[in-house]
């Protein structure tokens, strides 16, 4: 038996005996949580011992099998790695490349060791850091694993991973935009493209959804340069929806897209996902938005012949906003609710022209510049989007008219994580976090990382 392995087994047996002896003496005085905690600490110690032994054995095998080429062997060096079970130390060969002026450890590269933390530890840091403020994430991680991790360390790991995803997605989007000349090829039916068929196949899915949905909206993030608007999109297919009750449906698979960089970058990212999810092949294409003009000019051309719908929640929200200008919310609550309900019912039935007529009449009757301006703004908004407000027709066709999917997208991607009290983001930090959250919430983080679907 290997001497080191024999020593390890002896040490583990001693740990087991010590724990058993200690527990038998102290069990009657302990509560369940303390017993669990003791066993957790014991498990970490045993796992750490075994992990360190096995990693050193692997390092030795790798070092013996590597041909360093131009690298010059320097020495054996210890590498301390922080894992969820505690810190382990690995002795491995370290080389130096004179031409590049950089060092290299084959073990580190082979095992994916980047910085002070193991891949599993990094995935835990990302899983919690993508959901909670970095200092709070560190506290949760410390409590769960018993390992000392700082909020700054969680931030560095999350931003690094987010930056990697950001660069990967933007590079793909830029390439897809150039290969297909942006949205111009969306005007050509699939199968009639004569050029660069191989590149087409590389980006374009052969998936053929029955109904393809794209929903887009904007959020707000407080940056060091003031409040900025990130743009967020959600893509899903009709086939991704299931009914879980009489009045409720859920979408099992959604793709989130987001960026702080404005519509120029956003449309390229959307275009990439349309190609990857077979959006151009869909029998029916639906775009749901807040009715912003940039959506018509930059996003709608990506999906020719699509049905455009003004998100129901936005349509009603604007109505409520104006109602609160016309009526005192505290003193005239009943009048406010009655006024909104009457117009909301008309909108629900697709009678947007009648709603506009009533608003015009109200504008002529009310006094006060503020009230007239609020009504004029709402009238302009409804006029511009009236062809996207045929809600009676959409419901008859079984189309979604909003149902909060993209609203929850903005809430999930931006608000829940990036709008906490006192939060101010750098532009780079906000962008990397948005990309990290989009990948995380889409359930498509790389293998080995923690996944979630929201």
Describe this structure in words.
By secondary structure, the chain is of the alpha+beta class. The chain folds into three domains: 3-159, no CATH class; 162-311 and 402-441, no CATH class; 314-394, no CATH class. Helices cover 53% and strands 16% of the residues. The protein contains 16 helices and twelve strands. The protein has helices at residues 3-26, 32-65, 106-111, 119-129, 134-145, 151-179, 197-203, 263-276, 293-299, 312-326, 333-348, 352-365, 369-385, 391-396, 405-418, 427-441, and strands at 72-83, 86-97, 102-104, 211-218, 221-223, 226-228, 231-237, 241-245, 248-251, 255-259, 284-289, 307-310. It has a five-stranded mixed β-sheet with strand order 10-7-4-11-12, sandwiched between helices. Helix 6 crosses helix 16 and helix 10 packs antiparallel against helix 13 (369-385). The two termini are 51 Å apart.
Strand order of the largest sheet: 10-7-4-11-12
- Bulk shape: elongated
**How many structural domains in the coordinates?**
3
Characterize the largest beta sheet: strand count, sense, and whether it forms a barrel.
5 strands, mixed
Helix count, DSSP H or I runs of 4 or more residues:
16
Report how far the terminal alpha carbons are from each other. Answer: 51 Å
What percentage of the residues does DSSP assign to strands (E)? Answer: 15-25%
Which parts are unreliable, with pLDDT below 50 for 5 consecutive residues or more?
Answer: 188-193, 450-454
- What is the total tally of β strands? 12
Helix content: 40-55%
| Alpha-beta classification | alpha+beta
SSE string, helices as H and strands as E: HHEEEHHHHHEEEEEEEHEHEHHHHHHH
Mean pLDDT: 87
Radius of gyration from the CA trace?
29 Å
């Amino acid at each position: 038996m290997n001497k080191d392995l024999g020593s390890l087994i002896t040490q583990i047996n001693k740990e087991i005996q010590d724990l058993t002896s200690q527990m038998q003496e102290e069990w009657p005085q302990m509560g369940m949580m303390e017993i669990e905690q003791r066993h957790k600490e014991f498990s970490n110690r045993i796992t750490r011992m075994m992990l360190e032994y096995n990693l050193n054995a692997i390092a030795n095998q790798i070092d013996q099998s590597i041909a360093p080429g131009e690298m010059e062997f320097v020495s054996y060096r210890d590498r301390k790695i922080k894992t969820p079970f505690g810190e382990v130390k690995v002795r491995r060969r370290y080389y130096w490349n004179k031409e590049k002026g950089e060092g290299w450890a084959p073990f580190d590269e082979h095992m994916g060791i980047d910085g002070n933390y193991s891949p599993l530890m990094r995935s835990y840091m990302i899983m919690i850091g993508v959901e909670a403020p970095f200092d709070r994430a560190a506290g949760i991680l410390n409590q769960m694993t018993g390992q000392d991790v700082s909020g700054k360390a969680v931030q560095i790991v999350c931003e690094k991973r987010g930056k990697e995803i950001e660069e990967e997605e933007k590079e793909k989007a830029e390439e897809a935009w150039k290969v297909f000349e942006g949205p111009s090829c969306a005007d050509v039916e699939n199968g009639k493209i004569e050029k660069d068929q191989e590149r087409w196949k590389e980006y374009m899915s052969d998936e053929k959804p029955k109904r393809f949905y794209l929903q887009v909206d904007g959020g707000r993030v407080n940056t060091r340069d003031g409040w900025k608007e990130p743009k967020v999109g959600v893509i899903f297919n009709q086939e991704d929806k299931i009914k879980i009750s009489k009045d409720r449906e859920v979408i099992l698979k959604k793709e989130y897209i987001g960026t702080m960089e404005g519509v120029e970058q956003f449309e390229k990212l959307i275009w990439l996902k349309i190609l990857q999810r077979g959006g151009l092949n869909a029998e029916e294409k639906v775009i749901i938005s807040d009715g912003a003009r940039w959506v018509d000019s930059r996003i709608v051309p990506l999906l020719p012949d699509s049905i455009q719908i003004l998100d129901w929640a936005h349509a009603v929200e604007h109505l409520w906003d104006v109602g609160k200008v016309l009526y005192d919310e505290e003193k005239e609550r009943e009048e406010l609710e009655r006024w909104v309900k009457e117009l909301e019912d008309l909108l629900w039935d697709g009678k947007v022209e009648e709603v506009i007529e009533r608003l015009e009449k109200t504008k002529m009757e009310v006094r006060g510049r503020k009230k007239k301006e609020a009504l004029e703004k709402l009238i302009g908004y409804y006029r511009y989007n009236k062809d996207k407000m045929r809600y009676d027709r959409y419901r008859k066709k079984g189309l979604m008219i909003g149902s909060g999917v993209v609203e929850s997208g903005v809430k999930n991607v931006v608000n829940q994580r990036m709008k906490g009290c006192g939060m101010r983001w750098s532009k780079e930090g906000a962008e990397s976090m948005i990309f990290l959250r989009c990948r995380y919430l889409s359930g498509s983080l790389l293998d080995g990382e923690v996944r979630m679907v929201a």
